[in-house]
Every structure is written in structure tokens, then in C-alpha cells.
Amino acid sequence: MSGTRAPAVEARQLIKTYPGGVTALNGMDLTVEPGTVLGLLGPNGAGKSTTVKILTTLARPDSGSATVAGHDVLRHPDRVRRAIGVVAQNSGADPVATGRENLRLQGRLHGLRGAALDRRADELLERFSLTDAARRPVKGYSGGMRRRLDVALGLVHRPEVLFLDEPTTGLDPEARGAMWDEIGHLAGEEGLTILLTTHYLEEADRLAERVAIVDRGRIVVEGAPDALKGELRGDAVHLELREPLGEGGRTLITGALGALPGVREALVDGRRISVRADDGAAAMPALLAALERAGVTVAAATVARPSLDDVYLRYAGRRYADAEAAGARTAGDEADAGTAPRTGPGTAPGTAPGTGPGTDSVSLTGGAR
Ligand SMILES: Nc1ncnc2c1ncn2[C@@H]1O[C@H](COP(=O)(O)OP(=O)(O)OP(=O)(O)O)[C@@H](O)[C@H]1O
Fold this sequence. Notes:
By secondary structure, the protein is of the alpha/beta class.
């Protein structure tokens, strides 16, 4: 692949507000280089699906622009559609038809006929280890087989860019691992450009050459996973307290821990404290002593190399698990409320890192280093 080729996907300043006032996208910028896998990583409700809908011409932004495979999504949606494959969150396969019938139908929709259609269907069945199941109705397939068929359906017309929306959600660990291998091959050996959305940190880490972390409708940081983790120099120390700290306690502890030698950053959030230290093991005794002096009891402590979880915490200002829980609560509210508009993280764009309610943080070094 030439380094001078135009980006396969480019989005600039996409804004999208849904009826009811939910700001799903709040200035989304995104670039995917040809032949690479970009992982759009973010918690539930961050705006990943809305981004994919706009890039695949299924929704229009309120403002901003985007091109896919060199075609403008608003001016030439038909050209974009011919150049892309889309694997949506929910399977598009007909459960009553067989795997082979589904592939043939999809091929016909893309203009394939006769021997070329048969060849392509057989090729994809073989490619995705579905040959033995080719003549069975899809409703009898396992979750992993269905997902592989979904990807095969998205590839029938040999697209340049493949969109995979949450490709492994709902799969068991074994099927997830198999799907990761498939996606790795598609990008590596077949040179496809892939934009995949995921809310699994591990999936982004494992599959994506570059990760764009999306939070509240915009990208908060983008880069190669190892580089992003490497920028957070030092170790991540996580402490769990027996009792949650109130507001006064949080401020006190944040200040006390942040002032210890070798400690770069401390973030206190309820029962959990996250510290970034030059040497986590060396800092641990002083951290525990400072907490003991403050009358705070520690229930558990761990030291680890920074993970994408820590990258998210650094740039989005809240823990990934908390953001996920907030998104899940939102989805639950929505289900309770029937057709009520979704609200949640997307309703509060632009909250500065570390300033969310219930969180105190102090950075002693300024910036991410
Ligand atoms: N049709 C809609 N009407 C109103 N609000 C919506 C609609 N679709 C999405 N939203 C809201 O827009 C925001 C972004 O949603 P989006 O589905 O793009 O996020 P996501 O990151 O893909 O999350 P998920 O992983 O749960 O699909 C959320 O706050 C959501 O509640």
C-alpha cells in the first residue's frame, strides 16, 4: 500500500442531534488509512453507531462532511454504497434461508449472476468455514457461525472498506477469538480497510492498528494502542477502599497522594483510587501509609502497566466501566420508557477530563506524559 494514497475514510466535524435534543456527535473527526484497521472504541451511547450510520449513508449529519473510498457521503451516497460492506450489530441474514441462499441473494442484489455468483458464494462459504453448514437454514447456526456469515455477506461484492459494528458482541469467548482471527486475516492478507466499532477494550487492543477513543460524541484521543499506553509513562496503581470517600475526603486524599514523590497523577472516585506512579511497587508503601494517616482503610491494591482502560481514564476523565454502566442505565431507561428519546453520556458533551461529578483528579506533570 502506498503511503500517499488518500484516506479510505475521512470525517470532519460531524455533528448530529437526535429529536429530543440528544447530541450524539459533537464534532467527530476521523481518518482511516487504506488497508488498516481502525477501532472506534467507546462506551455505550458514545456515538459509534451514529458515526457508522453517517459513513454508510444511512443517516445524515446536521453538519460536517465525510468521504468514504474517496466519495462524498452526502453528494454520492450510491458510489459510497458500492464501495463499502456493512456488518450491522443485528444480523441481516434471513434465518429461514440457508447460508448459501443468503449469500446468493446478497450477490444477486449486487449484480452477480450465473457461474460468477456460484463461485463467489462457494468461495466465501469456504473462506468462513461454513461449507459444511451451507445447506442448513441459518436459524440452526451457532452465534459464531451467524456472525461469520454476516461478515461473508458484507464481502460478497468485494468492497474496499468494511464497516463492522460491534462484531463480537454476544459471542462466547471461543467464537470471539475465532472472529478476531478472521478480522486479522481480512486486514492483513486481503488488504481490506476496516472500521470496527467496539466497546471491548481488549478487542480494540488486539485488532486495531489504530484506536480512536470516542466519548460523548467526539474523539478524545487517537493512536496505535501501544503508543497510547506507552505515553502514559510509569505504572497504574489501583487501590480499592473499604468505604467510599465523601467530597471532602476526596479532595484531601487527592492532594495528599499527588504530593508523594514519584506520583504523577491521582484520581479518587468513590471507593476507588487510580494513581500513576513512576514505579508503582516503590510508591506503594508511601501510598498506603498516606491513606492510613488519613484514616482510610484499603481493601485491595494492584500495580499494572497502563492499559487502554487507563488511556480512557486519562483522556475521558472517567473510568471505562463507569461510562459503560452509565450507558447501560441509559439503555435500561429507554427500554422502560418505551419510545422516549435516549439520553445519557451524549447529553453532556464537552465535560473536561477529570471534572465529572464525584471525581477529583490532580495532574502533577501536565498533559499525558
Ligand atoms: N434514534 C435515536 N433517537 C434518539 N437518540 C438516539 C437515537 N440513536 C441514538 N441516540 C442517542 O445518541 C447517543 C449516541 O448513540 P449511538 O448509538 O451512536 O452510540 P454507540 O456508541 O453506538 O452506543 P451503543 O454501543 O450502545 O450502540 C446516545 O446518547 C443515544 O442514546
